[in-house]
Amino acid sequence: MDRPVVLAALRDSAASLAVRFPYMRVVLKRGVFWHYLEERRGPFPLEADLGVPCARFPAVRRDPEVIRIFARGNRIAVEFSHIVTDGVGGRRFFAVLLEDYLARVDGRREGSDRLVAPPDDRTRTAETEFAYRRFYAPDLPRPPRLSRAWHQPGVRLRGTDYRVTTLVYSLSEIRGRASRAGVNVTEYIIAHHLVALQAAAMEARSPRRRRRGLAPRRPIRILVPVDLRALEGSSTVRNFFVFVMVELDVRLGTYEFAEITQKVHHQLRTELDLRSLRRHVTRNVRPERNALVRLIPVRIKDIILRAAHRRSGEAANTTSFSNLMALPVPEAVARHVRHVAFVPLPSAVTGVNATLFSVGDAISLTFGSKLADAAIERRVAQGLAAAGIRGRVITNWGVQR
Amino acid sequence: MTVGAFCERCGVELEPGLETCPLCGARPGTTPGDNGEYAPLPEELGRTRIPAREIYRRTTLLVLVTALVVVTIVDVAVSRTLTWAPIVWASLVLLGGAMLGPLAMDGFARPFVTDLLLAALLLLTIDASNGAVEWFVPLGLPILGATGLIAAVVTLVFPRLRTLSSSAAVVGAAASVCVVIEIAVSRWIHGGVVMRWSWIVLIASVPVAAFLVIFEQTVGHYIDFRRRFHI
To answer: Where in the sequence is the domain holding A218, given as residue range(s)?
Structure first.
């Protein structure tokens, strides 16, 4: 924000949002066959921001909170568990929170009252829809099985340590560069990310492979979540997205930046096909409809799924890249927001994940890293600097906890 | 807003206060600032409420000590010796313990150490005020101990009960306490166990508790029940 957080106003907003989004004011409960969400009364919890995001989901505690609001200095943060919503649902929640908070700070109560009015039955039904059902088509063939991708080696940060690095740039400047390359902003940044990963993969080769001029053994793949709401006209705040993959097969040789931008552009165009996406959704939903799977007690499901995720959850992708686009707030709100950042979830397997999020003319490229070395972040920043794009860097690393 | 240093190598401006570039580790030179994103925590969220607690603790101590001194002076001035003042001292000490004890401990220990122990001390003081301990050991201590034990069982075994189930547990606990009271009193008066009324309370409590639990499980708990067993 452009000024320090007013805690009293934020606390009031946390209470109001529990009225506006009662189905997000929930705790996670364990049933016999599935986990489920149970609504709670009272405001969303407001806590001090200790600078270590996404690191302490209290899974060991009973009934953990799935949404928490944090404040520190001039920053407001909201931590979402993916159990309750996805990036776009979280973005909507955050936009309403900011708008209501600023209305309260400025003393415009009538504005905030309208904004956080309890949902009527129609809104509630629409916002809590399990929208994947729309896409489910049991007869569709499964998508092709992907091989293991290259993963960045290196020392991982211990315990809950998580380095978050945000690079803030001018959106119009990046948009200009991207359009000159014939791609959009997402594709342009993904291309820079792939250049950095390609360099890292070449550098991480074993001395023997490097001596013989051999490429890395596995391809680089970036997992890109796609919001399905716009495609299907849904206004749910529950999870409603699917992944597509952007691949750079470095086993075939190295690529120049211009080649990579074109590869990214065409791969995303090919993948963003409604019929193809339906196939992915069907694959994801199918196990939930299997009678045998449904009858397995939740504790056994937990063990099986944990083992399955450890073995193959992130095996097929090198990293992930998520673009939340622009924060949907009015201009009057946006001018009080210096920038917004979307912190990806930590993963020791992929090491570094990246996101994009923008407000006004400020676009934030955020890296969440479990790697001790900030090599990927450095290469991407230096790649953008080489293209003439300069920005600001903000990190939680080494700050007061 | 203060402006941070600029790292030419990475093409980024650093947050005010950062000495080295977090990406490449270079030291481009810094300007001190205090308006960064990771500014010091807000007082209200970053610190516990120790000052308010401290004020409460000191005020309570001051009031109790003043009362203690005044009581002693009055007793000595009127009777020329200590007569009733020690009983008031004991009461004041117990009151102080009840008011200040919860500040020093958390969780399960709070109701037991502060309430149970202080209640035992109060009963002992009252019993001993006649010059000898008569009914505290055979009557007061068993009733208090049993009450504490039943309360502990209810708290530990049913820690997460909802409204009606916890009410049912309290009804059952109250009936059990009645049984203990009658046993202790009859042993003190008659020298043996004579059950006259507590069994009626105990039997009457069973359908009441059962009704409360069944009502909650079937009506109040219906949605939760359905979710819990959703396949």
So the answer is: 163-395
